[in-house]
Design a protein that fits this description.
By secondary structure, this protein is of the alpha/beta class. It has one domain: 2-Layer Sandwich (Nucleotidyltransferase, domain 5), CATH 3.30.420. Helices cover about 35% and strands about 25% of the residues. The protein is built from eight helices and nine strands. The strands form two sheets. The protein has a seven-stranded mixed sheet. The longest helix has 14 residues. The radius of gyration is 17 Å and the shape is globular.
Length: about 230
């Protein structure tokens, strides 16, 4: 049962299906990652500062054919004192080589703290951060990346997420997918929903993988341009 049907029928929590951007059925799924072709593991972090928001850190494995597997997720409403060790440990455990942080509202200080902790553990990772552009709304930034997030064939990149049966015991991964698949682009929903999951994925494709979309044109920025 998809997330919206479960919420409506089982949880008795009505959700407007019209306007859902990333429905469960549209996402590209996988059970296990390929045995060859892995280029690197990367991540993006949307830092949370209360208000019911979650720190969202999608950890992905990029392969030679530009398939991007969602290997794991840090998705937590815990305090920064608790999430910083989680982020640091995940970077080391998954051998992440590049990680981007949203710098707004103190996210730059959060990134610097993560960088300090990594240095203490003698682990090198390309930590970057930047403020979100003011020329685009958050909704526009997310919609600009809906092709690669859905894994459509016309996109330069294709995101694949784990089948639900493979993450039964992974609460953070499940919660991340729940928020992603509930995200609604309707005007009436803006400012009334949590969007940390889709926003962090959009940041990953834009700031780490260098995906851009202008109108109907799609292009890839080189890693040298990004300093990666």
């Amino acid at each position: 049962m998809d997330t919206v049907s479960f919420e409506c029928l089982i949880q008795q929590n009505p959700i407007e299906r019209l306007g859902i951007v990333f429905s469960e059925e549209e996402l590209t799924k996988f059970i296990s990652e390929p045995d060859y072709g892995l280029q690197r593991r990367i991540a993006a972090v949307d830092v949370a500062w209360g208000g019911g928001d979650s720190l969202s850190m999608p950890i992905v494995s990029e392969y030679e054919n530009h398939d991007v597997y969602l290997t794991d997720v840090i998705f937590s409403q815990a305090k920064k004192e608790d999430t910083i060790p989680m982020v640091v440990n995940a970077i080391i455990e998954y051998k992440i080589t590049a990680c981007h942080f949203e710098a707004n509202n103190g996210g730059d200080m959060y990134a610097e703290k993560v960088q300090e902790e990594l240095k203490k553990k003698n682990y090198r990772c390309n930590i970057t951060w930047s403020k979100v552009p003011t020329t685009k709304s958050k909704l526009d930034r997310i919609l600009a990346c809906q092709g690669p997030i859905k894994g459509t064939s016309h996109s330069d990149y294709k995101l694949l997420v784990k089948e639900r049966k493979e993450i039964r015991n992974n609460k953070m991964y499940n919660d991340f997918l729940d928020e992603l698949t509930k995200f609604n682009q309707a005007a009436s929903m803006q400012g009334k929903q949590h969007d940390d999951a889709p926003d962090s994925l959009a940041s990953l494709f834009t700031n780490v993988l260098g995906y851009t979309r202008i109108g109907t044109a799609r292009s890839r920025i080189s890693r040298d341009d990004l300093g990666i």
